[in-house]
Amino acid sequence: MASRTLASHMSGLSIAAAKENVSPNSKARDGEPRAAGAEGKDAGAHDVKRAAPSEVPSQKPRVFSLGDFDIGKPLGRGKFGNVYLAREKRSQYVVALKVLFKSQLQKAGVEHQLRREIEIQAHLRHPNILRLHGYFYDANRVYLILEYAAKGELYKELQKCGRFDEKRSARYVLQLTRALRYCHTKHVIHRDIKPENLLLDLKGELKIADFGWSVHAPHARRTTLCGTMDYLPPEMIEGQDHDDLVDVWSLGVLMYEFLVGTPPFEASGAHETYRRITKVDLRIPSFVSPEATELLRKLLVKDAKARLSLEAMEQQPWIRKHCGSMLSQ
Ligand SMILES: Nc1ncnc2c1ncn2[C@@H]1O[C@H](COP(=O)(O)OP(=O)(O)OP(=O)(O)O)[C@@H](O)[C@H]1O
């Protein structure tokens, strides 16, 4: 069900997740989404799904507005707005509605980045990539209709557990590998894979969210960086041109963090983190198995071209040992 699109549910089907508590009477406070009628003069809406002619021959893409949704509990607060549980009234489809304030986007100068994020995420269809079903806007806000990830941030799980066991880590690494391989076939480089950008659905499956830093492959030029350096490869922090192999490095950083609980090159200051990344100062604790250690050393390689390819991941002994049921024999 989850892989079906919101547009395909417009006929009024209900889904299991609709049992979630989405109250139609949720009161909107100032600055939060209101029920129907809040759209301004320049409101607009887009269903990002463009149905293939064979799929829904006579159906026009559905156009959404705030009035189409019952707004439920807040799911989290982001840099530019909030995310709410919501239910599309006609189909009863449960989604996460991300509400972004135009004024805040403008102030931070990230409208262009958001446009790119929408454009990229809307065209990706993979079980381990959070679906963007559509978007619409009114005078003050932009609304993203996102797949609901019921188990929330992977980061919080990691904080709760301290670190994951090898089986759980390997399953996440395999899911990430598959999502990244898919992105790369679409010439999309994510460039910002970190635990905060990974969500979990009801079944605990990993979903890559947040394509804010992603780019189409030919344009991966030098860029100004902001935020944490911990997940970035040497070529990016040294300001060089780079390609999809940056995501292989980040996969290695995440694999380490799943197994150990902290990113591998963490240091007290930016200068020292920079030094540790560029020197690949990798220290793997002895509780990490030899198979995982071997794989980490193949992913976290300074020379991007010498890194293990994502295609080769499923043959790695560590993945084969822990992900048997997820692999085709
Ligand atoms: N699709 C979703 N399903 C469930 N919870 C979500 C979903 N999207 C976001 N959340 C929750 O809302 C919080 C805020 O999300 P948001 O993406 O706005 O945060 P952010 O890290 O500031 O992102 P951005 O950098 O894009 O602004 C997340 O940390 C998460 O807990």
Automatic annotation (TrEMBL):
GO molecular function, one term: protein serine/threonine kinase activity
Family: Belongs to the protein kinase superfamily. Ser/Thr protein kinase family. Aurora subfamily.
Gene3D superfamilies per UniProt: Phosphorylase Kinase, domain 1, Transferase(Phosphotransferase) domain 1
PROSITE patterns: PROTEIN_KINASE_ATP, PROTEIN_KINASE_DOM, PROTEIN_KINASE_ST
Region annotation (Disordered) ranges: 15-61
Superkingdom classification of source: Eukaryota
One protein family per Pfam: Pkinase
Compositional bias annotation for Basic and acidic residues: 27-52
Domain Protein kinase stretches: 69-319
Keywords: ATP-binding, Kinase, Nucleotide-binding, Serine/threonine-protein kinase, Transferase
Protein name, as recorded: Aurora kinase
InterPro entries for this protein: Aur-like (IPR030616), Kinase-like_dom_sf (IPR011009), Prot_kinase_dom (IPR000719), Protein_kinase_ATP_BS (IPR017441), Ser/Thr_kinase_AS (IPR008271)
